[in-house]
């Protein structure tokens, strides 16, 4: 389990305790976090779960796979060095305390 904080574009902050193995996209959509759509259901095929990870998460997450990098080319909001797809980030104790900021738009 990991406590992950999601910061919506509005500034609303929500901390969720996510079970190991759940993607951040699954956790956000299951708990009503505004700003993640996840149209493809987590198959890395739509880029509607674009997020910005904090420095801590960036330091502990594995590098994105080529498929994720390809999909990040399709994001609507500004792509930044810390852009990731929430469907590709799996919760684990190693992510405890991480913060994810959501962009103003996904589509």
Automatic annotation (TrEMBL):
Required co-factors: [2Fe-2S] cluster
SUPFAM superfamilies linked to this entry: 2Fe-2S ferredoxin-like
Pfam families with a match to the protein in the record: Fer2
PROSITE patterns, alphabetized: 2FE2S_FER_2, ADX
Annotated family: Belongs to the adrenodoxin/putidaredoxin family.
PANTHER family recorded: FERREDOXIN-2, MITOCHONDRIAL, FERREDOXIN/ADRENODOXIN
Name of the protein this chain belongs to: Ferredoxin
Source organism of this protein record: Hydrogenophaga electricum
